[in-house]
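[Meeting: bench + compute handoff]

Bench side (C.D.) handed over the final construct sequence. Compute side (W.E.) agreed to return the predicted structure before the next meeting so the bench team could plan truncations. Sequence as handed over:
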Amino acid sequence: MRAEYLPQSTPEQARDMLYTVFFGVLSVTYVYCVNEMSEETCETLPSELHITKEEYDELGRLQRTCNGEIAVNKCEGSCKSQVQPSVITPTGFLKECYCCRESFLRERIITLLHCYDPDGVRLTGEGRNSMDIKLREPSECKCFKCGDFSR
């Protein structure tokens, strides 16, 4: 008895059907893994930095160097990203990447209290023993599409 109800297909059609099934299974498996295992943890965290700032005269000669330890915020964590099969893209995969970074910056004035002349001697004179610098730090962090700097 012959099964006449099965359509005849060319090797190319069979290959295309196999790819469709494979990518469909891969896509469903990937979406399940992303939804079950990934969690966004992007947050604003306190941090401490050592900053060194140099000051030069109009001829480019070093006048003083100031430094200090300062408390600043930073963005840290992970965001949900995914790669899924695609018949439209040249690579065969559609990538959606998200990164943890600042959504709002605030400006602060920081005072560096350890200043030295070019010979490494600590400066004690009024107006030379400290240096104010402007610093922009994150006050809020969240997930953004990677490479999107249009905010």
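W.E. noted at the follow-up: The helical segments are 11-37. C.D. will use this when planning the next construct.
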